[in-house]
Amino acid sequence: MAPAQVVEIRASRSDDRMAPSTAAGALPASVTTITADDIATLPIGRDISNVFQRIPGVVANNIDQGDTGNGFRMRGFATQGTHGADTAIVIDGVPQNIPSSQGGAGHGPAFLEWMTADMIGSIDVIKGPVSALYGDQNRAGSVAIATREGGAATPSSAAVTLASHGGRRGSLTLSGEYGAVRSLLVADRYRGDGFRHGASNDRSNLFWKLSTTLGDGIYSVRASYYRSDYAGAGYLPLPALEAGLDPHATQFGLPGFGGAHRKTLVFNRQPTGADGWFATAYAEDFERSRAIANSAALHTFGYDDRTIHGGRAGNTWSFGDKAVLTAGVDARADKGDALRRQYRDRQPTANYVNNQELDLLTYGAFVQGQYRVLPALKLHAGARYDRFDYDIVNRKLPAASTAYRGTAFTPKYGVLWSAHPGLDVFANVAQGFRSPAAEQVSASGSLGPLGAPGGRVNAGIDPSKVRSHDLGIAARPAAGWNVAASVYSIENDDEIVNTAPDVFLPAGQTTRRGYEVDVNWQPGRAASAYLSYGRILRARLDNPAPGAGALLSVPAHTWKAGAQYRGALGPGKLTVNGDVYVTARNPYYSGTPSVQRDMPTYVRYSLKSGYETGRVQASLALVVQPHEFASDIAYGTAAGLLVSTVPRTQLEGSLRYFF
């Protein structure tokens, strides 16, 4: 039988944030936790990024061109953000950001398509780089995902799903206990034809996790396999759409294409309590390709073929109820090929954008502690020291082949004050970093053949750092009410900006300032509601080049609101969720000379209802995007705005049987 679920719009924070702890909710920062029950109330569809759709101030999506990465943008970071860079994303202690990717998009994209909702136990979204447990790409913040375990916590089930535009999915979850071993097996197959002409996706996911408790530790090993083949319809110019171009059309009449294979093995050990040692070891075979149409005959074909392995280990010590200290080390080795090649009529030519053999080693040490000075006052401090040892063979411009050695030291400080019963105040000052990209260190020049003369080496480049300042509150003004608010200011060095599809350029120093407000109301078990607003006051280049635009392409306003009802209906239980999501005043530049404009306001309404009786659970979801030609996925170019058009309505129905 399926267990009775108690679903919240958003998970609450720790009941006692003042207690020294390594938990994300104990940080002096803005933190949101998403549970498996939360995810069950969301219309996930084909895009796992939708698990983040209720997080205040966050813009999360897939760019609708196939399995090309998962966007996660917050706090004014849009640099490569349509693919998840600038936020450190970790699953079971394994970093998900891929450095110097050519089969994805630039430096640090995250590819979460190997996951399905049935695999996720919890997600912590941490705003700002205040946690020392996460390293590379921890600039806007970090996301820590924990996978589910088998046994009593997860019921076995089988599900089928049908959706608009040819979407169909079959999934199987097998959960059980065999002596002291808990087993969870998830198999998922998804196929979709897409809203646009020429678009398609064929994806297979397999996940198996074994867990056991021995003494004071929980040990687990998990293996996963992911395969995807897809075609993407590209972007369409807004002026042409307004003049009557079919929104289903394919850019240049030539779909993009790509595929991915990913095999991963992960071992984990964590203590059963607050104290003890923890360890992670992982190995991964990562292969990915993506071809982007440039004209009616040409593609730029990006490809990664990498072998990745690494680990982390450390220990946590508690000192009564006064203090906690965590120290550890981590390392990651990444070897293989990364290239972009010109294709003509879907056949490779002799010309390359770049072609590099990469040997990227990163390793670091971290320490983090909390000390409760007074019952109502807790101090937080941490630091990381990270080192980068790269060897880059530039096959296109051999003279640019080089080694690179660099370091980054990033301290973090914070304070949490329980100013009044029901009112917590926090502040933090923290630094985060992004490692240098291989293309920054060993430049490849313009399109050309392998073995060409020339080349530029930037071996003295420093890792990009941010300095972040946060001030916020978490209040419970009345029974059933929770209010959170924060303001932030971020200064960033050596910004890399996504200026057009597949174009990433250095832009110098940037400054970001903004605030977020989040209100939750739950008068009882039957109903709840939330409202959040994210306001970016400043996201701009401090030293733009002459004639270049200073504003970064991020929405100034992000509104999110929703409500939930749950209760008995006949022999079963009914759950209904409605959500609204709005982004507005997103600047871009077009024309020569460039002129600042704003993208169309984007609005999305989501409604999901679920009914559960006995062993059967049925759900129906509707997504409405009513504004013509408005999209969360768009780029400003000299010729005008390029848009990935989206359907006005999407419908999805699912039937699940528990056993």
Please provide a written account of the structure.
This is Ligand-gated channel. Residues 27-141 form the TonB-dependent receptor plug domain. One of its GO terms (cellular component) is cell outer membrane. Pfam families: Plug, TonB_dep_Rec_b-barrel. This protein is an all-beta fold and 659 residues long. The chain has a single domain, classed as Maltoporin, Chain A. The chain is built from 3 helices and 36 strands. It has a 22-stranded antiparallel beta barrel. Strands 1-6-7-4-5 form a 5-stranded mixed beta sheet. Strands 13-35-34 form a 3-stranded antiparallel beta sheet. The longest helix has 5 residues, at 36-40. The protein is globular and about 65 Å long. Residues 1-15 and 500-504 have low confidence and may be disordered.
Key features of this structure:
disordered N terminus; five-stranded mixed β-sheet; transmembrane beta strand; receptor; 659 residues; 2% helix; mainly beta; 3 helices; 22-stranded antiparallel beta barrel; Maltoporin, Chain A
